[in-house]
Amino acid sequence: MSDTKNLSPVEHIKLASNYLRGTIAEGLADELSASIAEDDTQLTKFYGFYQQDDRDVRAERKAAKLEPHYQFMLRLRLPAGVVTGEQYLAIDELAHKYANGTLRLTTRQTFQYHHVSKWQLRPLLQDAYKIGVDARGACGDVNRNVMAAANPERSAVHAAVHDWSDKISEHLAWKSRAYEEIFLEQKSSGEPDHEPLYGKSYLPRKFKIAIAVPPENDVDVFANDIGLIAIVDNGELVGFNVAIGGGMGTTHGEPATYPRLGTVIGFADLDNVLATVETLVTIQRDYGDRENRKHARFKYTIDDNGLDFIHAQLAERADIELEPARDYHFDRNGDPLGWHQSDDGHWQLTLFIENGRIADFDDNGLAHYGQYRGRPGYKLMTGLRELAKIHKGTIRLTGNHNVIIAGVAEADKPAIEELVEHYALDDGRAYSPVRHAAMSCVAFPTCGLAMAESERYLPDLVAKIEGVMVDAGIGDEPVVIRMTGCPNGCARPFLAEIGFVGKAPGKYNMYLGAAFDGSRLNKLYRENIGEDEILAELTPMIERFSAEREDGEHFGDFVVRTGIIAETTEGRYFHDKTGPAEAA
Ligand code: SRM
Ligand code: SF4
Questions:
Q1: What's the pLDDT band for 580 if we cut at 50, 70, 90?
Q2: For ligand 2, is residue 24 a contact (CB within 6 Å)?
Q3: pTM of the predicted protein model
């Protein structure tokens, strides 16, 4: 553990917070400002909310000498992204009552509210609690929303995997009573508090876990601090291969930061899963860097200490010796859209939600005072609400910003189909495979870290790339394109066959060469380029791909095979332009 004097400021804030209380309650009661105290903004993340300001009006308000338009983003905790129709209706209602009347699906299978005022936070969390949903640990230096394979086609395995995501989520949730005290009961028991797993300073950084069911890697399992790969024998879940040390976040110009994919370190049977996961978390708790937050994720703890160290710690702390990893195979990430029937005869409908924004768009395609754009006249939010009213199964969010209407009985299918048609909810299926696979982070106007647009720009860029692909005769080819407004990697852009990462307004770094199944990172191809240069670079490359690709070859593999970009074999070599040989 670090010497206290060198700890990062956030570590001091956590230590002094009395198990995350800080002065949050006082800040919420202060009627003079729409903001809360600076130190508390670090603590409220543990309760699922971030202080932000509306960046579309930041300059204007500054010029008028007004305080920034403070508002909050609130993210719910929703293991595996599963809600009932009833819960969905309440979640939708809260968006209208307390937020900006839109819902934002996230890349980790949950809902976010934007534009929530300070005074609406408590009622929002209280109302969510009434429907069995909280925001405990949705953000902050703890384990985050546990993801799990969304596609419920193989229903028995999926149900088991969903149970595991719940179990892990509960087991690793922070336990201090501060959540109830500040947001629900609004009074202190006066008893001393404690935090059995995390202790007073919680984890050095955020921690993420996902469970994949091969052959689909819809959760991008290797992007997580712990990735669990379901091993199924005779139709039954028998355990998980354990991958550790995944993460996307980097900082422009700081090569010591890099994305890394999880390394598979062995197999844990069902009796050992929880102990293995908990022990890995404690290793990170005790050895993660608490001085430099840019070097504090588990991926750096692993690369600094080596895998032997991790195995030795598992043995020493919990007598865990993992079995050799079992065989598995992924063939894709992303979500198969449309109707599918599961093992038990029920139907599932996966709907395409462009970049995760659920809203009703007016005839000009605008929502929330023109801040968001979609299909003109598309009543997506109303349509989903009407579906939730009659749907008897569950509604599932995918890790790719899409929604699954799951568990539809044969007899109920016509009524669902009628609503889907009425609200044109499945019309997105006619879009190109490139658009289906494209994913962007939130960025402007809410994200305080955005350097360039993402959610509001990617659809336009995709339209232009679609044009290039159609001209090249490969309009039906799936190519995974992802964009983020900064290098933190919220839409996992370093796992895109073509990735764009914001540098400045209208300027992006372009990355190429990740694998279609999420098993290889991409690499920087061009720096700080705008749309014209992006299209000028991509057009001949796509034409060449169309002419020279091998049977079944994906774009990411093609650019590596033909030497357009060097392969990134490991996160540590991500910044090495020439590939692993020279880096070694
Ligand atoms: Fe993220 C910070 C949005 C998934 C890596 N992320 C943020 C914040 C909270 C900005 C901030 O700190 O002020 C963004 C809020 C924007 C807004 O206005 O809503 C934000 N992240 C998102 C979401 C909503 C993007 C989306 O389009 O869906 C995703 C919410 C997921 C969830 O439900 O929990 C989201 N973020 C991710 C992912 C993808 C994943 O987990 O699979 C990553 C990369 C994986 C990883 O963690 O390495 C990711 N977000 C980051 C980072 C960089 C972490 C790092 O290790 O360097 C930050 C910044 C930070 O933590 O300092 C960040
Ligand atoms: Fe914000 Fe950057 Fe994450 Fe996009 S990638 S949501 S810009 S932190």
A1: low
A2: no
A3: 0.97
